[in-house]
Fold this sequence. Notes:
Layout: E1 19-22, H1 33-42, E2 47-49, H2 56-61, E3 65-68, H3 85-102, E4 106-109, H4 119-140, E5 143-147, H5 163-173, E6 178-183, H6 184-190, H7 194-201, E7 205-210, H8 227-236, E8 242-245, H9 253-263
Parallel strand pairs: 1-2, 1-8, 2-3, 4-5, 5-6, 6-7, 7-8
Amino acid sequence: MAVPALAAAAPVARKGRLKQCVTRGCFGRGMSLDEMCREAARLGVVGFDLIGPQEWPTLKAHGLLPTMVPSGSTIRDGINRVENHERIEAAIRESIDLSAAAGAPNVIVLSGERRGLSDEKGLENCVLFLNKVKSHAEDKAVTLCLELLNSKVNHPDYQCDHTAWGAEVMKRVNSPRVKLLYDIYHMQIMEGDIIRTIRENLRYIGHFHTAGVPGRHEIDGRQELNYAPIAQAIVDAGYTGYLAHEYSPTKDPLTSLDEALRICDV
């Protein structure tokens, strides 16, 4: 499949106050990772989320970072159940080591589904797990990011589905290398009140994801979130980490991505 028309355009200069990255899904279908990386770099992207180590050489060839590294936890089977801890711990320690060696800043962690587990017990189990691995993350200067997801539309029964619950995990773990992955799309569905919530909890946030609500498509004017002031609030609050776009395009992918990067380039 031919790369869309913007491929021949000149490199785009960004202000760069907010370090923006992407996921594969922003490019739709038909492009190789090498083509995605070439266009991402041209458009001012600094890295890719959720790319495994086997493909890091492709990112590196285009000057891009793996900005959020996969690990052993999943949306269904995560760190909220002690029977998963041994397996996930081994995978996360390996991901931390690989990330440190490659200069990758973050490793993703997922709570898992409740499946009858109370929120307090699930919280205690997440804290127990993170306390086991936080010193390794601290020693390697890699941040573990527990992702907030919605349980209303996309991920029924997922436990880390409210900012207050995730922030309580952060308070109890109390590590500079254990943070939340605040997904703006998911938290708009669950809570709304995005800017105030970000400001009040920024010390617990290590990474951001974007997408339009409803539908998880572009962050343009066809959806309910106003991303420019959200991005401005994040920068004004002193955030220095990464923000990754994680939406499915409904129009030309490179046009959509250029627009998303422009909206958040405050």
